[in-house]
Design goal:
The chain is built from four helices and 20 strands. By secondary structure, it is mostly beta strands.
Length: about 425
């Protein structure tokens, strides 16, 4: 039943009403639509270029309640259904993955997301509903090969190592309401089952600096793995370009059953301070206490910290450049402290071209059987070229290549120079 519903959502997006318009938030965050095709109610809605959580441009919106720079671009299709503004977005990647060396593997798989957002503005507030689904569960419980990655489990008894776990079918089902207190201030509440608590930077598949890279970072479980949490309540306050928010959420990571809904416990806490000093920058600092996050270590709790800065700017004659630098730390109740660093960037010299890179370094205690802390690094280069195939639809062709740096105790088990590569085709709705 859930598989049929997912396919129906994907098929429905391209068939949205004929008056739906392509949408893109540019450097100033203004909505780009064909104004001649709008009626009076639509004009009134689109003149309110305001974020769903407060008094800022819509282009600042990102995953969950996170922010990114106002200069970031978004693709999607918008339409009006009465008093509701509805947006649909689709991205599907058909990928072939190679990972070399003694612990490597290769496989084809499908990844991506399909999302629908519905927004209604009232005289003093905004109600926003969002649903996001993923095809990841169809790749199998073990996910896809990814050297140096670790996190979650495929069978409930062993750790997933050198694999990226699949995300759940339901990535987000959320609702938020913000109330305007003044021209510069607002208060909001967000509920998700599943949803994303107030921790870390924008999740990797939505970050402007990494949105075209189909590969998950190996720092995922330091920075943004909480983006699918079964039970989240967040309350926050926005003042001009500042946002302070706090979440109560379920600390346990999703289990190996990717089509169901896990139990909501609301046993963990997170807090995040965000600041956008101008249209090009977005900074955040966050903290979280997770109660029993690991299914295979149920007696251990974890404290996480995160700092990040994202920069987006459009240069005349050069195109758009986006970059993110992030640090994450997790400390568990057994006394183990592990750090991760990430730097990634994306350059779009033209609307149909994108080139991306990512550099990561992590401290990981799951890569070796004896629990010894390893400190590997990964460097990725890639790009994608897209072509319009229909109104609002593009088909892309891309590839990436990984350089993995092991050394020390990892060298004997990974080989002298393990590498990784992906080629992919992409269908996107913009």
């Amino acid at each position: 039943m859930r598989r049929s519903a997912f396919l129906c959502v994907l098929l429905a997006f391209p068939a949205m009403p004929a008056f739906a318009q392509a949408h893109d938030h540019g450097a100033m965050g203004h909505t780009v639509m064909n104004m001649a095709d709008m009626d009076g109610a639509q004009m009134d809605m689109m003149q309110m270029d305001r974020g769903v959580l407060g008094p800022y441009p819509q282009s600042r919106e990102a995953s969950g309640t996170s922010w990114q720079p106002d200069a970031a671009s978004h693709g999607g299709v918008h339409t009006m259904l009465g008093d509701w503004m509805v947006m649909g977005h689709l991205r599907l990647d058909a990928i072939y993955d190679w990972q070399t060396g003694p612990r490597g593997d290769d496989m084809p798989f499908l990844a991506g997301m399909a999302s629908v957002m519905a927004r209604r503005d009232f005289s003093h507030g905004t109600l926003n509903l969002r649903a996001m689904l993923s095809p990841d569960p169809f790749m199998g419980k073990r996910g896809y090969p990814l050297l140096l990655a670790a996190g979650e489990t495929a069978d409930g008894t062993t750790h997933l190592v050198d694999r990226q776990h699949p995300h759940d079918l339901f990535m987000e089902l959320s609702a938020s309401y913000s109330h305007r207190l003044s021209e510069q201030d607002s208060a909001f509440v967000y509920f998700g089952y599943p949803g994303e608590p107030a921790f870390g930077p924008t999740v990797f598949m939505h970050r402007a600096s990494g949105v075209d890279n189909p590969q998950a970072p190996i720092s995922h479980h330091w920075l943004d793995s909480t983006h699918i949490t079964f039970g989240v309540v967040t309350a926050g306050f926005v003042h001009q370009n500042w946002k302070l928010e706090m979440s109560r959420f379920t600390g346990r990571e999703p289990d190996q059953y990717r089509f169901n809904f896990d139990s909501a416990r609301f046993d963990s806490t997170a807090a995040r301070l965000s600041w956008n000093p101008d249209s090009n920058w977005s900074l955040q600092a966050s903290w979280a206490f997770l109660k029993s996050p690991e299914q295979l270590s149920p007696l251990e709790n974890e404290t996480r910290y995160s700092l990040s800065a994202t920069y987006v700017r459009h240069f005349d004659g050069v195109g758009q450049i986006a970059a993110t630098a992030a640090w994450g730390r997790k400390h568990n109740s057994a006394g183990l402290t592990l750090n991760a660093l990430l730097a990634e960037a994306e350059w779009k010299p033209a609307p149909d071209w994108a080139f991306f890179t990512r550099v990561e370094w992590v401290e990981n205690a799951e890569l070796l059987h004896d629990g010894e802390i390893a400190r590997p690094a990964k460097f990725t280069l890639g790009g994608v070229r897209s072509w319009p195939v229909a109104e609002h639809l593009k088909l892309g062709l891309g590839a990436l290549y990984d350089f993995n740096f092991t050394g020390g105790a990892l060298a004997p088990v990974y080989g002298s120079s393990p590498r990784g590569a992906m080629v992919f085709t992409r269908l996107s709705m913009e």
